[in-house]
Amino acid sequence: MLRMNRYQNEGYSTFFNAKTGFFARVEDKGKPEPFWSPHGPELMDISITNWCDKGCAFCYKSSTKSGHHMKLNDYKSVIDAAAQMGTFQVALGGGNPNQHPDFIEILRYTRERGIVPNYTTNGRGLTDDILEATKSFCGAVAVSAYPPYDETTFTIRLLAAFGIKTNIHYILDASSVDTAIQWMTEPPDFLKGINALVFLNYKPSGRKVFEAKLLRNSERLDEFFQLATSKECKLKIGFDACCVSGVFARTKTSSTVVDACDAGRFSLYVSEDMQVHPCSFQSGLAAGDKITAENTLADIWKNSPNMKSFRDYFSSNRCAGCGHQSSCMNGCPIFEDLVVCGNR
Questions:
Q1: Rounded distance between C-alpha atoms, residue 214 and residue 174, angstroms
Q2: How far apart are the C-alpha atoms of 215 and 273, rounded to whole Å?
Q3: Distance of alpha carbon 82 from its chain centroid, rounded?
Q4: What is the dihedral sign for C-alpha 7, 260, 182, 184?
Q5: Can you tell me whether residue 229 is helix, strand or coil?
Q6: pTM of the prediction?
Q7: What would the pLDDT profile of 193-202 be if each residue is shown by its tens digit?
Q8: Which terminal residue of the chain, N or C, has fewer Cβ atoms less than 10 Å from its own Cβ?
Q9: What's the rounded Cα separation, in Å, for the pair 215 and 339?
C-alpha cells in the first residue's frame, strides 16, 4: 500500500500509505526542503456540488438546495489529470458531497485511478450503499460538528457502525474556543471512537460575517494552543492551515510535524464549475482559472498568475524579523485576520 514518487530534479521523494494515510516528503541528502511541487499538487480539494439543504449562516460557499452538481465526466477528467500529476489524495466537499447523484461512482473511479478519496459531510443522505462505498474506497470521512450536536452524534455512530475512519471538523472562533478547551479536557461521550478532532479557523466569509467571532479576539489562545499540543489533551488533535500561525508562535511544536499553508504549493482547489484556485476560500473573492482543452489543469498549476501570486506571498519577507517566518510563511494570503500568532 506504500506509494513512492521520486523527483530527482527537485531533489526529494514523497511517500504515501493509502491504507493509513501516512505521508512524508523526504529531501535528498544536502538538499533544501522543497518550496513547491512543479510536477503537480499532492492533494486536491474538489467541490463536487454546491447543493445543501442546511443553510448554515457560516457556510462560506452559501450552499443551498438550488446549488448545482459537478458533471461526472468533468470530475473524471479532473481525476485523470490528478493521476498524471502524481496526486495522492482528494478532499471532496461542497455543499454536502455525498448527496451528489453520482457519488458512489465518484468514489469508485477516484480509487480506481490510484487516488484516495476523502470527504466532509453534514451527515445527511448517508445511505447504506454510500456507507459501503465509503468503507471500500475512502481513506476517511470528516463530520462537520455544530450545536446542538444531535445530528453530529447520530452521524458519528452511523459511520462507526460501518467501521469508517471518522474525523470531526470543528469551527474555532472567539467563543467556540471555550467548548474546544472543555472537549480536550473532558471529551463528551459522542466523541468516543473518533480518529481525531480537527480545528478549522473561522473565516470571515459566507452568508453572514461576524467580525467579533474571529479567533484572534479570544483571550484564551495561549491556553488553547498549549493544551491542544500537550500530553494533557485527551483527544488526537489536528489543525487546518489557517491555525498554524498560532501553533508555531504559541507552542514549542516542531516545524517538522506542522506545515505552513500549502495552497498553490502542494495543493489546489477545483470548484463544481471547473474553476481552479490555490485555495477554496479564494473562490468567492477572485476569479479562478477555467479548465479547458487549451488550459489544462497541469497548465494552470504550472503557469497561472493566480498560483504564482500565492507562491510569491509565501516566499516574501512580509513578516521579516519574526522568528517563525520561515515556518509560518507569513500566514494567510487571503485573510489578514486569520493570523493568530499575536505578532501582528
A1: 6
A2: 31
A3: 17
A4: positive
A5: coil
A6: 0.94
A7: 899 999 999 9
A8: N
A9: 9
